[in-house]
Amino acid sequence: MSLLDTLQKDMVAAMKAKDKQKLSTIRMLKAAATNEKINLGHDLTPDEEVAVLARELKQRKDSLEEFKAADRPDTVASLEEEIKVVQAYLPAQLSEEEVKSIVAETIATVHAETPGDFGKVMGAVMPKLKGKADGKLVNSVVKELLAN
């Protein structure tokens, strides 16, 4: 079942349950996926679906930080609920230890030795971890392992 089909089914369920927060978030996700489908001109592949969801999650996490800094607890609570809904559609995220293992393996594969090889490592590791791990976590792990 495609992401759009799943979102449509869940949107109907949220309407029936009168869950306004979940309904609005699902509508935003559905709109983002539909826009991406239109822009690409074909049905989304599973990787493209994950990319759309990851982008939406990142936007919400960035907004969450801004609203926390601005001391807006009402909006923070709303965004936290949206983040939970978006995460429900993403594949399970890898733990920090799993990310370290994959990054260490990639460093060995590309023969990186110094912090100057950061770009080479990130370019090789991000396709493996796209949608499975937060980019900030991957970035910090790569820096940490290259510094040692």
Automatic annotation (TrEMBL):
Pfam families: YqeY (PF09424). InterPro entries: Asn/Gln_tRNA_amidoTrase-B-like, GatB_Yqey_C_2, YqeY/Aim41, YqeY/Aim41_N. Transmembrane segments: none annotated. It comes from the Bacteria. Gene3D superfamilies: 1.10.10.410, Uncharacterised protein YqeY/AIM41 PF09424, N-terminal domain. GO terms for molecular function: carbon-nitrogen ligase activity, with glutamine as amido-N-donor. This is GatB/YqeY domain-containing protein. It comes from Ligilactobacillus salitolerans.
